Structures are given as C-alpha cells and as structure tokens.
Amino acid sequence: xxxxxxxxxxxxxxxxxxxxxxxxxxxxxxxxxxxxxxxxxxxxxxxxxxxxxxxxxxxxxxxxxxxxxxxxxxxxxxxxxxxxxxxxxxxxxxxxxxxxxxxxxxxxxxxxxxxxxxxxxxxxxxxxxxxxxxxxxxxxxxxxxxxxxxxxxxxxxxxxxxxxxxxxxxxxxxxxxxxxxxxxxxxxxxxxxxxxxx
Length: 198
What we know:
The chain has helices spanning 3-6, 21-38, 50-59, 94-103, 115-119, 149-166, 171-174; strands at 43-47, 82-86, 109-113, 140-142, 180-181. The chain is α/β, with parallel strands linked by helices. The protein has a single domain, classed as 3-Layer(aba) Sandwich (Rossmann fold). α5 (115-119) links the parallel β3 (109-113) and β4 (140-142). α2 packs antiparallel against α6 (149-166) and α3 crosses α6. The longest helix is centred in the N-terminal third of the chain and has 18 residues, at 21-38.
C-alpha cells in the first residue's frame, strides 16, 4: 500500500516539492505586500469638528484601533497613506486639504467621516463645502452625525479588504475614488419595543 493512501499528510525524507520560482516570487509579492500594506495603514487625521472627538475615541483604549494596524497617526502627509477627513470643511480650508492630499505618497486612500464631510451636513451655507468628494477622490464614506467609533473601524476595515482583494492601486487608477459606504456587518436586536405588553 502506498504512503499517500494510508497517511496523506505525513512527510518523509523521500518527499519533494517542485514549483516555478517566478510563481513563488509572484505569490509573495502579491499576497505578502498586500498583507503588509493592509496591516500597516498610517492615517493622517484632518479633524475639524465633533467627528474629531469620535476619531480620538477610536484611537483610545476602549476601541483600540491598534488591533487593525492603524494606530500610528501621522501628522505629516509624507508619512501617511490614509486621509481621514472628519468634520465640516470650509471653503477656505479646502486648498489646504487638497495640498495635504497631493503631498501624500502613493498608494493613498481617503475616508470621509461624518455627514458634514460627506454632504455638508446641517451646514447648508456658502462657506461650507457640500461634500469633499467634489474636490478629492473619496474611497469610503462613514455615515453618522457624528459616527460612532465602531463605524469608523468598519470603514478602515473596508479599506483593508480593498487592499487585500484588489491589491495596491494608485489614486489615478481609481479615478474619483471607490465611493463605498461603511455599513455594520452585525444586526442589533431589540428585546421588546416600548409600550409593548409583556
């Protein structure tokens, strides 16, 4: 009886493994580089309002963004690859935000956090930009006013899934951004409605 018939997973000194070197190098280049980039995002926070408080809470010990490899908040655009725009952006601030985005190294991603950054929110005035996607390519929208830290973590995980599945693409290849909406992957259940007889 042959060894592979009675113990297929046991190895012996007679076993050999053959492959092509280019396939092995390609495998490690694609999966190894994507894995490393996915687990080492360096965010550049651009927080201007109440969404900034939720962004700070995401980095604190209760939610611990370090579990996802994104705890190294960099305040220099040349060291960052993920721009998190949290809060409203005034017309006079937009050139500064565009300059920060242009100074970031490729590949780079953008998260629009909160209703004000995504659509202008309740500030429907001439001085507030009605969505940063008019000026920057947004990859993930994080809804809420202000969004909870769990929602921001879900947005960061959406960026990580994109890096893992599609590989690393430059911002010019993605065009106007991927425009995904961060949605929770879990469903909350309510034990009983208010006023319902038990």
